[in-house]
UniProtKB/TrEMBL annotation, chain B:
Record function comment: NDH-1 shuttles electrons from NADH, via FMN and iron-sulfur (Fe-S) centers, to quinones in the respiratory chain. The immediate electron acceptor for the enzyme in this species is believed to be a menaquinone. Couples the redox reaction to proton translocation (for every two electrons transferred, four hydrogen ions are translocated across the cytoplasmic membrane), and thus conserves the redox energy in a proton gradient.
Quaternary structure and partners: NDH-1 is composed of 14 different subunits. Subunits NuoA, H, J, K, L, M, N constitute the membrane sector of the complex.
Listed name of the protein: NADH-quinone oxidoreductase subunit K
Membrane protein topology class: Multi-pass membrane protein
Superkingdom of origin organism: Bacteria
Entry's EC annotation: 7.1.1.-
Catalysis: reaction(s): a quinone + NADH + 5 H(+)(in) = a quinol + NAD(+) + 4 H(+)(out)
Length: 630, 99
């Protein structure tokens, strides 16, 4: 069975190669090829999953070594795969949701003349993401990590004729690069400390390294995770990344790629377990981002940007859970998977709404769409109930577990983290209800688009509706399946698990979670359900205005990094011009001046030459005599 | 007679020659002063040969005389041709070799 692992990556990679090199003759069939190869990958994943389920918990991990990538004395990098329960979970999520989104894109991108290229990029993304989760060493993981970054760049900037999309793609690439530096430094420290970067040896030996080294590795891995998963302080790219086509937002910037940071932390669990300081920073980053994303999500009128804020916030939950150690790893992954379902579903719903509304994204120009787009309404509604944690749906189970684990951390830390997660749950309920009410309820606030065409909302074609329905089913049932089919036992051999006991009792935590959810929904209903929504955004409070500008993240980056960088380069240029060039030019000028003066000695008079000859000889003789006397 | 006196004479002749080279402008006189310096050296060589009791210095003096004779042939020829071209034997007039 292990020989199939390479095919998981190989199928979409083949698709990308064929679609990107195939040229125009594949324009009519390209999308089918892309979808088929993604589905092949999913089918292989299912076969491996069935095989894995048939084995005992300890024998489930599979390994496949293809070839040695960089054979150098004392440094060996292999192309080798490791498929354990954690990787399996990701493989099914990536290839499953990926296939659904391929299907959705067939309809969504129907009128785009570059659809073949779009599917090529999507396949490239799936291949790189699978490589990332299947790698058995950090260097190959890094390769996949860069691969998804490339695919993300290409897809955000897919409509490159729009300057905003091209800029957003560049921004995402640059911010990610900051995180990538963290990952590369972490790998270098690992190699110098352990002499290898394969998961097995590094994680086994992690207990022997010094505390400082482990903390450094942990913090660098966290920096990498912050870049890829849009966590504070590297969160600024995710909102702009919504310039990409909606299927891309659903697959890459909600369900899979942005969760790579969570995967990285959970995969490196042994390192973080041995470095409590790094773990603490991880929980702080998670908690801050959780609130940050939620607050931004409350203020955005662009439906996709509101969902992007929500993604940031939900990934904050996962990172926080991953920072809690063995009591949280499993729930981080569980929330990751359920989030993959409901957030992909929500984005596809948003895409469907945009499809029917002439690509309008401003929720203030929606309203009353539930009767015009019934299927979108129902699937979006189920995703909505799942994300706010409505009892029985998937988000309820996974989020509730994280809140419990946060409380179970113990001490003041536990109370603070628990309170933050509860507050986050309330805000989540608030902003999602706001999105729901502004889009599907209330009176119609539709406005004609730039060409003067009034919108004619209609249900989307079947290729778009089916993936939405399937994801809605996943959003409804996912949590219960994980809860009762033993997700904890499934992941425990890889990540470790320790049951946490919250100080106020699990039932009380659940009651609180439901209570804050009801409060959040109620507040949003009072504000957006009872009163008509103004078509032009009101000025709002200071916080609202800051949140509309992403809590001034871009202004901060501009003030600190852009302006600071400009001043730094200017001062360096000044030093270069005045000091470095000064030394060089000064030497040249003084040599030139000196030789100009020496040239005057060359006056053509034979007698003056004779003087210098006599003078020189006299000096030589005098020197000789002097030396002899001494 | 003390041979050191010959050395004093030699130094005196050399100095006169050198001063003549530096001071006089007429190429012929400068040339003669050069010859004076050469012969002052010859005198010193011969004196040292006598003082040290071997013949090396005298042999060198012969060489110097041969070279000086050859030099006079070439040098006078150059001075004559310069005089024919420029109607002047002043060394200061021939100062074209400069930047």
């Amino acid at each position: 069975m292990e020989n199939l692992i390479a095919l998981l990556v190989g199928a979409p990679l083949l698709g990308a190669a064929v679609l990107l090199c195939g040229g125009r003759r594949l324009d009519r069939t390209g999308h089918w090829i892309g979808t088929l190869l993604a589905a092949v990958s999913f089918a292989i994943g299912l076969a491996l999953f069935a095989d894995m389920l048939g084995k005992g918990a300890e024998e489930r991990a599979l390994y496949q070594r293809l070839f040695t990538w960089i054979p150098v004395e004392g440094f060996q990098a292999d192309i080798a795969f490791q498929l354990d329960q954690l990787s399996m979970t990701f493989v099914l999520l990536i290839s499953g949701v990926g296939t659904l989104i391929h299907v959705y894109s067939i309809g969504y991108m129907e009128h785009d003349e570059r659809r073949r290229r779009f599917f090529g990029y999507l396949n490239l993304f799936v291949a790189a993401m699978l490589l990332l989760v299947l790698a058995d060493n950090y260097l190959l993981l890094y390769f996949g990590w860069e691969g998804v970054g490339l695919a993300s760049y290409l897809l955000i900037g897919f409509w490159q004729h729009k300057p905003s999309a091209a800029t957003a793609a560049k921004k995402a690439f640059l911010v990610n690069r900051v995180g990538d530096i963290g990952l590369s430094i972490a790998i270098m420290i690992m190699f110098t400390t352990f002499g290898t970067f394969a998961f097995g040896p590094v994680l086994e030996a992690s207990g022997q390294a010094s505390q400082g080294t482990l903390t450094a590795i942990g913090l660098m891995l966290l920096l990498a995770a912050c870049g890829k998963s849009a966590q504070v302080p590297l969160q600024s790219w995710l909102g702009d990344a919504m310039e990409g086509p909606t299927p891309v937002s659903a697959l890459i910037h909600a369900a899979t790629m942005v969760t790579a940071g969570v995967y990285l932390i959970v995969r490196s669990a042994d390192i973080f377990n041995a470095a409590p300081d790094a773990q603490l920073v991880v929980t702080i980053v998670g908690a801050v981002t959780l609130l940050f994303g939620a607050i931004v999500g409350c203020a955005k009128d662009d439906i996709k940007k509101a969902l992007a804020g929500s993604t940031m916030s939900q990934i904050g939950y996962m990172i926080l859970a991953a920072g809690l150690g063995p009591i949280g790893y499993v729930f981080a992954i569980m929330h990751l998977v359920t989030h993959g379902f409901f957030k992909a579903g929500l984005f596809l719903g948003a895409g469907s709404v945009m499809h029917g509304m002439n690509d309008e994204v401003d929720m203030r120009k929606y309203g009353g769409l539930r009767t015009y787009m019934p299927v979108t309404f129902v699937t979006f509604g189920l995703g909505y109930l799942a994300i706010i944690g409505f009892p029985g749906l998937s988000g309820f189970f996974s989020k509730d577990k994280i809140i419990e684990a946060a409380f179970a951390k113990g001490g003041a830390e536990g109370w603070i983290l628990g309170a933050v997660t509860l507050l986050g749950a309330a805000i989540t309920a608030y902003y999602m209800t706001r999105v729901m009410l502004m889009t599907f309820f209330g009176e119609k606030r539709w406005q004609p688009d730039a060409d003067g065409n009034p919108p004619h909302p209609h249900e989307s074609p079947r290729s778009m509706v089916i993936p939405m329905v399937l994801l809605a089913v996943g959003s409804v049932a996912g949590g219960a399946v994980f809860e009762f089919a033993g997700f904890v036992e499934w992941l425990e051999p890889v990540t470790g698990y320790e049951h946490g006991h919250p100080p106020i009792g699990a039932a009380a935590v659940t009651a609180c979670t439901v209570a804050v959810m009801v409060i959040g929904v109620g507040l949003a209903y009072l504000q957006y359900g009872r009163r008509p929504v103004p078509a032009v955004a009101p000025r709002g409070s200071l916080l609202t205005r800051a949140a509309r500008r992403d809590l001034l993240q871009d202004d901060f980056n501009h003030a600190v990094f852009v302006t600071g960088g400009t001043h730094l380069t200017r001062s360096l240029v000044y030093v270069d011009h005045s000091l470095v060039d000064g030394v060089v030019n000064g030497t040249a000028a003084s040599v030139g001046g000196l030789s100009g003066r020496l040239r005057k000695l060359q006056n053509g008079y034979a007698r003056s030459y004779a003087v210098s000859m006599f003078g020189g000889t006299a000096v030589l003789i005098a020197a000789t005599l002097l030396m002899r006397a001494v | 007679m003390n041979p050191v006196n010959y050395l004093y004479l030699s130094a005196l002749l050399f100095t006169i020659g050198a001063a003549g080279v530096l001071i006089r402008r007429n190429a012929i006189v400068v040339f003669m002063c050069v010859e004076l310096m050469l012969n002052a050296c010859n005198l010193a060589f011969v004196t040292f040969s006598r003082m040290h009791g071997n013949l090396d210095g005298q042999i060198v003096a012969f060489f110097t005389m041969v070279v000086a004779a050859a030099e006079v042939v070439v040098g006078l020829a150059i001075i004559v041709s310069v005089f024919r071209a420029r109607h002047s034997a002043s060394v200061d007039d021939a100062s074209l070799m400069k930047l």
